[in-house]
Structure formats: C-alpha cells, structure tokens
Amino acid sequence: MQNPVLTHSGSLTLADGTSWAIAAEDSSGADIGRSLAESMQLTTATHATQKLLVLKDGLPSKGSIQSLLSEKIQSLAHDDRITCQLYPAKDNDILAVQLMQLSLIFCSQAEARGGLLVHGALAEKDGRGVILAGPGDVGKTTASRRLPLPWKSLCDDCTLIVRDSKGNYHAHPWPTWSTFMFGGTGGSWDVQHSVPLEAIFLLEQNKKDHAETLGQGKAACLLNETAAQAWLGISYDLESRMKRALSLQRFANICELIKTVPAYLLQFSREGAFWIEMAKVL
Description:
- The protein is α/β, with parallel strands linked by helices.
- 34% of the residues lie in helices and 28% in strands.
- It has 8 helices and 13 strands.
- It has helices at 27-39, 65-71, 92-112, 140-146, 216-230, 232-235, 240-260, 274-281; strands at residues 7-13, 19-24, 51-57, 81-86, 116-118, 120-125, 128-133, 152-155, 158-163, 169-174, 195-205, 210-213, 263-268.
- The strands form 2 sheets. Strands 5, 6, 7, 8, 9, 10, 11, 12 and 13 form a 9-stranded mixed beta sheet that branches.
- β1 (7-13) and β2 form a beta hairpin.
- α2 packs parallel to α3 and α5 packs across α7.
- It is globular.
- The N and C termini lie far apart (59 Å).
- The mean pLDDT is 86.
C-alpha cells in the first residue's frame, strides 16, 4: 500500500540540536498543523530533520495524542516518526487542548535529553535569559509585563529549558495555550528563539522587593513544584508507574540544572522596581 502524500506545516529546531518536521496526512491534520505552526511561529522545513510528527484525523486509538503521552512518552525521544490521531477540533477549546498536548511531545523529548518544562515566564536582557517561576496565582504575567526596557518579555506562562551537547542550558519561550480557550484570541510565540539561561527566580509576593540566593536543596524543591504544574494538564491521565518514572527523571534534571544555573528567591511587590533587585544578584 502506497504511503499517503504528506502536507508539511513547518519545522521546529531547538537549541539542544534536535529538529522536528510537522506534517499531515489529511485536511483535518493539516488544519491543526497550520494552527500549531502559526502559534509557535514555525518555519517551513528547508533542511534535513531528525524527527517527523505526522497528524491525521481519527478517534482516540493507539495513535492518539492521549495514548502517545500516556503509554509511549518515555520512548518519544527515540522515535524518528510519530503519528498522532486527532479529535475533530469542533471549537477553539478542543483545538487548544490538542495544541497543548502536541507541544508536550516536544517537551517530553527535551526532558529525556536533560531539559525541563517549567511553569515560568521568560525574559531577555542583553542576549541572556532569566525565568520568573512560580504557581499560577503568584503574578508571573503581571511581573513580566512590568519589566522595562532593555528587558524584553518573551512569554508569561511556560518556558522550555533545553541542554545542549556541551552541557549548556538554553531557554525557549513556550505558548500560553489557555489564551486560546473560553473565547480568547490566542497568540503567537517565537519558540525557536532561544537565549542562554542565566538565572531562575522563584517568585513570592511581598510588600518589599528583595532577591536572595537559594540553597540548591530548597531551589530544587521549589523548581520541582513549578515543573510539575507545567505538566498538570496531562499528568492526571498517566498511570502511577509512569508518573513516578517521569517525576524521578524530572527531579534528576533539576538537580543537574541548579549546579550550573543559579536560583534566587525573588520577593516582589505589585508596584516596586523588582528588576533592580534582580540586577543586584545577577
């Protein structure tokens, strides 16, 4: 039987050297592929890629996103071709969930290579990146939007950290998928743009602005909480054995990360110039 003709939507290349081509077998898969490419500002595939993600229409089965994430998530890093069957995207809410789950395929591969998806905003200054991490109600979005020039906010919800072959860490902005839901207008993020990761700030609201160095033990625990939150959307569907394996892998990655990238506790107020405190410790 002849293989179906694939429609290519774009390609994704990360700073750890991995690259993906996104393609579709049918019109439904092509529509979602275009949405994924637009929201992540993916370029047209013009070079040889290491991995191929194929999208097609179909009810949940062994090739569905849910099955891939719950049954094969640890082997995704080693598969050169992954085929996903998709729910019909009847509305933007369903589309947003599928886009988020598709993006987690890229994240799972990055984590298998020593990276980390963290619940945190990414900001850039002078070509270097810092992450403002914390729980959903701590004020990451507000803080990132208040940063003055020459700071630049790259994303306000999740950041993908990758580790290159030399052991250096780079941060990629990641989409805020919730902006596509409940009548939201969505958005677009340049996920292929990466910055060397200089520091991670764990946020805590306070009346005064202050930054202090965190010990590696406390930093690992706090960062582990934010990383778990980033995966909350699909982790409930995983079996206990796999949840434990992924959690152990994630914590091991965090322990390696904080050996190289310093972590700070950043107490910040709603009106204060907390970025001055950041500059003092950087």
